[in-house]
Specification:
The complex is a heterodimer of chains A (377) and B (446).
Chain A: E1 2-6, H1 7-18, E2 32-38, E3 41-47, E4 51-58, E5 60-63, E6 65-70, H2 71-80, E7 85-91, E8 94-99, E9 102-107, E10 125-129, H3 130-140, E11 155-160, E12 164-170, E13 174-181, E14 193-198, H4 199-209, E15 215-220, E16 224-230, E17 237-244, E18 263-268, H5 269-281, E19 288-294, E20 299-306, E21 310-317, E22 319-322, E23 325-330, H6 331-339, E24 345-350, E25 357-361, E26 367-371
Chain B: H1 3-17, H2 20-27, E1 31-36, E2 39-44, H3 47-68, E3 74-79, H4 126-137, E4 146-150, H5 156-170, E5 176-180, H6 181-193, H7 197-205, E6 209-213, H8 222-237, E7 241-246, H9 258-264, E8 268-272, H10 277-290, H11 297-306, H12 311-328, H13 334-345, H14 354-364, H15 369-373, H16 379-396, H17 400-406, H18 412-428, H19 430-445
Parallel strand pairs in B: 2-3, 4-7, 4-8, 5-6, 6-7
Antiparallel strand pairs in B: 1-2
Helix pairs in contact in B: 1-3, 4-5, 6-7, 6-8, 10-11, 10-12, 11-13, 12-13, 14-16, 14-19, 16-18, 17-18
Classes of the chains: A alpha+beta (377), B alpha/beta (446).
Chain lengths: 377, 446
């Protein structure tokens, strides 16, 4: 292989593919990135056998060939180089890098042993604007937790419906759901496509694609899903992320979302976050913060106490409808939900002291966060 | 050669020819799922493995297979269903509530929290527990159907779910289904509306163990009863286990068709009565151990002697004390326990009123309150009315003229006659005694 490419381009590519390489004792080649020179492109590939990432860039290719080298050393090294032309060459399973005053050799492993990234059939696909998708996904992605007991809920649920995409995540104590409304209908006539994406893959998608303009293409197969963005200069994929899907059936989470409320409060979000955080300082081991809501007073009293530290109470004005109520929540769960809301005012709906509470932004029906209280004391 | 042996032979040879890292990565969780004619299908855990085996090892695998069995000409790879590991996690007791929908297994409807291990046995529930255990060990052949009845909050649901969970554990291949009778009813209604009766029928007839909770709610729903009757027969004939619970014995369930009643009585009937004092203390101790907390015996005795008829309430009382302890970092003494539990023990709900008694009697016999008060002499109404009068006298010690007035402007002599009649009958009719106990329980459990 012999090719010439600008340092900055290669650095960007390595940053993207390096993330999922992992120290694998059973299969050391997974630490490596696969470098291939093909036609007019340099291609970088990495995988952890759950996710596979391909990245392409136009490059001047003089000889087509492939090799794998350890990702972290290669990436670290390239990032220190000046933004000049790099010449990459392969000789005897060694990668030679030539850049101005630097001449470097990195030992590699034969490309033959590198896992093959599975192909996803290209017939059925779907196009979506990248930035709202990543933004929506980032609102819910942290709710899921890795769980071996219930693999289905360890991932992010996606459902592609006629004119919207639903994304949901839960850890069985709380649940976030984001809807993205589409300008045009999905091309899947009369059928709904849904799948559960591993949380890791969802996080990588946010890392890789957020901040990028343009469209993201999604390709589906029963066991895999492919996210792809295109090069701006020529019709050729730039980044592909292939992930396995989690088997199993996602719980019928719609049943969890309350349709009505007994008590509704509208509060200023930042004030509410602040006051919950203050209360959190005095909450005990189970993170319990108590709310006393009285429609007659027109506000919420927020109390917490810790046998060792002391106790505090504060008061926050808000618009209240419905019944008065005393209820406790884990402050961490509340703050998480509040932080994922972007509006300045929030609606907090409650359903009795042991029923689920709902947080949602004022004037935006696309996001909802459901959280279970702590049993009343 | 069986699929398993054949694949073992292949693995044994491959092992010798590739590095152990490669072997562990690419051949873990693979197996042959079918051999048909000249084609062998190998199940692999994911697409990465599929690609790799197809492109790198296919020739090698085929060669070995061919040498073992000359007819094999082709190998296909398919991504199999990974074995979904379902470990029943020990439930950690915290006060953080979970979405209740998530704890329930979608297929069986069972909640893994209820097991035999955490079911506390005492003289009051020995018989149903033993019967349930026998059923769980040998479903379908010992007591079929098993009918368990008893009052509110005494552990019927726990026992039923424990049977289900135990069978799932012992016989993973058996299809267990736990449902509330009300869900069965709504299933019947929905399938009539959507004209899917056949699907509904077959859905329930493929089950190996059917557990129906609170069957008394079938009372008066004729079409559902009929459907249930057929399902019951279909399962019973195939020696499939049926377990039923109710808040009263089959005989006392009103508006239940005779053929169902006689079937319920055909297996084993076991009742859960009230726990005695010692068992109540034992339950409290076991529950506190589960939650890693200990109180003084004095407190256990206090709770046990004041809450006598409902295990759920025992737990509720205990939870209150646990929260107190967590907040104050010290165990409550007997005085603070008393004041903490005041609300539970003397809540206004427990006070019986004439209205409540009439309501409970009407509900128990599936009548409307106004029927009881109406001036009717139908047998089905007269008797419940007499029982209501008896209870008014016994519980509230109301005067006979008052009782007469409350129940449809009857003369006080009617009231006297009714009370005496029931009193007399009680002496030699155990069924009646039981009925009256169950009604009393309804009155007091609010």
């Amino acid at each position: 292989m012999k090719l010439i490419i600008l340092q900055e381009k290669l650095k960007n590519g390595l940053n993207i593919v390096e993330r999922i390489t992992s120290k694998s004792l059973s299969l050391p080649i997974l630490n490596n990135v696969l470098i291939s020179a093909e036609k007019n492109f340099l291609k970088l590939t990495s995988t952890n056998l759950e996710i596979g990432i391909n990245w392409w860039s136009l490059a001047q290719i003089e000889k087509e060939e492939k090799i794998t080298v350890p990702a972290s050393i290669f990436s670290n090294f390239v990032s220190f180089l000046p933004n000049k032309k790099l010449v990459l060459e392969i000789k005897d399973k060694t990668l030679l890098i030539d850049c101005e005053n630097f001449k470097t050799q990195i030992k590699g492993i034969s490309a033959e042993d590198f896992p093959i990234i599975p192909e996803v059939p290209r017939e059925e696909f779907f196009e979506i604007e990248t930035s709202p998708f990543c933004q929506g996904l980032s609102q819910i992605v942290d709710i899921a937790v890795p769980s071996t007991a219930r693999p289905e809920i360890s991932g992010i649920y996606f459902s592609f419906q006629k004119n919207k995409i639903l994304m949901a995540a839960t850890d069985s104590f709380r649940l976030g759901e984001k809807s993205l409304f589409l300008e045009k209908e999905t091309p899947f006539k009369a059928k709904e496509i849904s799948f559960i994406l591993p949380q890791r893959a969802a996080k990588e998608i946010i890392n890789i694609f957020s901040g990028k303009n343009g469209k993201l293409k999604l390709y589906f197969s029963p066991h895999q899903v492919l996210f792809e963005s295109e090069l701006s200069e020529t019709p050729h994929p730039q980044i592909q992320l292939v992930s396995r899907l989690i088997e199993g059936e996602y719980p019928a989470y719609q049943e969890i979302i309350p349709k009505k409320y007994q008590t509704q409060i509208i509060l200023n979000k930042n004030d509410f976050i602040n006051q919950v955080k203050i209360a959190a300082l005095f909450s005990g081991k189970i993170n319990e913060v108590k709310f006393k809501i009285d429609p007659k007073r027109g506000g919420v009293e927020i109390l917490s106490q810790n046998p060792d530290l002391g106790k505090q109470q504060n008061y926050l004005r808000g618009e209240i409808k419905g019944e008065s109520l005393e209820i406790s929540f884990n402050h961490r769960f509340l703050i998480d939900g509040l932080n994922s809301i972007r509006s300045s005012e929030i609606i907090f709906e409650l359903n009795g002291e042991e029923g689920p509470g709902v947080l949602k932004p004022v004037g935006d029906s696309s996001y909802i966060y459901v959280v279970m209280p702590i049993k009343a004391s | 050669m069986t699929n398993e042996e054949l694949w073992q032979a292949v693995l044994a040879q491959i092992q010798l020819n590739i590095s152990s890292a490669n072997f562990a990565t690419w051949f873990k969780n693979t197996k042959i799922i079918s051999q048909k004619n000249s084609q062998v299908i190998v199940s692999v855990p994911n697409s990465f493995v599929k690609e790799w085996l197809e492109q790198k090892y296919n020739k090698f695998i085929l060669k070995i297979l061919h040498s073992l069995n000359e007819q094999i000409k082709e190998v296909k790879y398919s991504i199999g269903k990974g074995e979904l590991k379902r470990t029943l996690l020990p439930v950690e007791e915290t006060n953080q509530l979970e979405f209740p929908e998530f704890k329930i297994d979608k297929e069986t409807n069972l909640n893994s929290r209820y097991t035999f291990e955490n079911f506390i046995v005492g003289p009051f529930n020995e018989l149903p527990q033993a019967a349930a255990w026998a059923v769980a060990k040998n479903p379908g052949f010992i007591y079929n159907p098993l009918f368990i009845y008893g009052g509110v909050g005494l552990g019927k649901t726990h026992l039923l779910q424990a049977i289900g969970n135990e069978i799932v554990k012992n016989f993973p291949e058996k299809r267990v289904r736990y449902i509330f009778s009300e869900k069965f009813t709504s299933g019947v209604v929905a399938s009539i509306r959507n004209q899917e009766m056949e699907r509904f029928k077959s859905k329930y007839r493929e089950i190996d163990v059917l557990i129906i909770d609170d069957v008394q709610f079938l009372a008066g729903k004729e079409k559902t009863q009929e459907e249930f009757f057929h399902t019951f027969n279909a399962l019973y004939e195939k020696n499939k286990q049926i377990v039923i619970s109710s808040d009263r014995p089959p005989k006392a369930i009103p508006a239940l068709t005779e053929r169902l009643r006689s079937r319920f009585e055909g297996g084993m009937i076991a009742d859960i009565s009230y726990p005695d004092f010692e068992t109540r203390v034992a339950i409290l101790k076991a529950k506190s151990r589960e939650k890693n907390i200990d109180f003084s015996d004095e407190i256990y005795n206090y709770i046990a002697s004041n809450i006598q008829k409902n295990i759920r309430e025992l737990e509720g009382a205990l939870n209150r004390l646990i929260v107190y302890q967590k907040l104050n970092n010290r165990s409550p003494d007997i005085e603070s326990a008393k004041s903490l539990l005041k609300n539970i023990l003397y809540s206004p709900k427990r006070v019986a009123t004439p209205k409540k008694i009439i309501q409970a009697v009407a509900e128990f016999y599936d009548l409307k309150e106004k029927d009881l008060i109406k001036n009717s002499r139908k047998r089905e109404i007269v008797r419940p009315r007499q029982i209501a009068m008896f209870l008014l006298r016994e519980i509230l010690n109301s005067s006979f003229p008052f009782i007469g007035k409350k129940l449809g402007k009857k003369d006080h002599t009617t009231a006297i006659h009714s009370c005496e009649k029931i009193q007399k009958e009680l002496e030699n009719n155990e069924n009646l005694e039981e009925e009256i106990n169950l009604i009393k329980q309804r009155i007091f459990s609010g």
